Known about the structure:
Distance between the termini: 54 Å
Structural class: mainly alpha
CATH topology: Ferritin
CATH superfamily: Ferritin, core subunit, four-helix bundle
Bound molecules: MU-OXO-diiron
Number of domains: 1
Amino acid sequence: MLSEKMQDALNAQMNWEIYSAHIYLSMAAHFSGAGLSGFSTWMYAQYQEEMFHAMRFFNYINEAGGHAKLGTIDAPPYEWKTPLAAFENALEHEQGVTARINDLADLAIAEKNHAVGIFLQWFISEQVEEEDTVGDIVVFTPPTNA
Ligand code: FEO
């Protein structure tokens, strides 16, 4: 059972995960065009992960008696000055995702919705890994293409 407020919040996150996917897909295209196929492949894998995240929300909302509602997805950026700029953008984006997941977890606590809280625990752990993975790449990516 989902309150209307909770359903809206879960739907917003589902759509944000799709937006996240589009950012990574856009980065994959950017790196492909720059001849950096390794980076492009890595970004494409992130795109697939984000769509998997979105589908976790989609399925959960429907299973919990709600209605997964697809919304308008903003166009992502499509070019970055350097590979480092793209990975810094990715890290900043993931930190924002973490904040959104934490806000959702706070809402679950406020509503005493323990089922949603348990559902969100997977995402709380996943965000630690996501920030760590892209953070490591930021550390080791030189500031220019040279
Ligand atoms: Fe679905 Fe990278 O957060």
